[in-house]
Amino acid sequence: MEKRDIVHLLHQQNFRLTREREALLDLLMRTEKMHTAAEWHALAQREHVRVGLTTVYRLLEVLTKVGLATPFLVDGSVYYAFCSGQHHHHFVCLHCHRVEDLYECPVFQHLPEGCEVRHHKVDLFGICPACHAADAP
Amino acid sequence: MEKRDIVHLLHQQNFRLTREREALLDLLMRTEKMHTAAEWHALAQREHVRVGLTTVYRLLEVLTKVGLATPFLVDGSVYYAFCSGQHHHHFVCLHCHRVEDLYECPVFQHLPEGCEVRHHKVDLFGICPACHAADAP
DNA sequence: TTATCTGCAAAAGGTTTGCAACTGA
DNA sequence: TCAGTTGCAAACCTTTTGCAGATAA
Q: Is A56 in the same domain as A98?
């Protein structure tokens, strides 16, 4: 999804693109990893983007609401990754926390009779090539 | 998984089956829904099982560790469901929070080159037959 | 112009920890 | 016997909220 589409999507739902949100959004869009709210905040600060932790939480909430971010519960912590609005699944590296999007959807069979699936998540956890190369556990 | 197998599994890892744990385990085993720690605690109390909330947290931690419980992040809260140790996926009813185990594993294709999958989750969210019948949203 | 957003500080909520007493194996 | 467990209270962390000032649109 292009940045202008994202801005359009946010505007459609009465969300504003402030200086703070734009900087955070840029950071999220070019970071292919999941991070906790606190980590995103720290990453922003490292780039001299001045935003409060509260603002980070609020943007993550907005993005999750419009389908541009996904929360993962890993080892008791909540991580967020930016993702295209399109429906897809994930491959999450347990070592570096990189998140790969999978656009091919597995086929579901053998559902309990009568279950209506509203949405589903397929999350794969493992070790990505880069970590393998770096001799990760 | 039979109860005695569960007990065996816990003993193997130096966990003890106390009166409190056994009562909680019985509750978990016969409840086909996911609940938050606080909810499990309340359910136990309703059955006059006297356990502290701390003990509930500690048992959920132990069960998760040995693969007998799964945490779900739904709407910002962490829910736990009991599950057999065997690898499987879930169908989670968004309305009544019932959790159905799916033992058929979807086929994964189109993984990013070189990714090593350590474990994966396929979680389906929707409305179960019972809720449908009760005219759920 | 005004509804939305921001940062701060405080509050809230959920989870973990320390500890003394207890208990399963 | 003694390593593991319990409940309580306190500590801890993460997340949310209230509010006054700032700012997109």
A: no
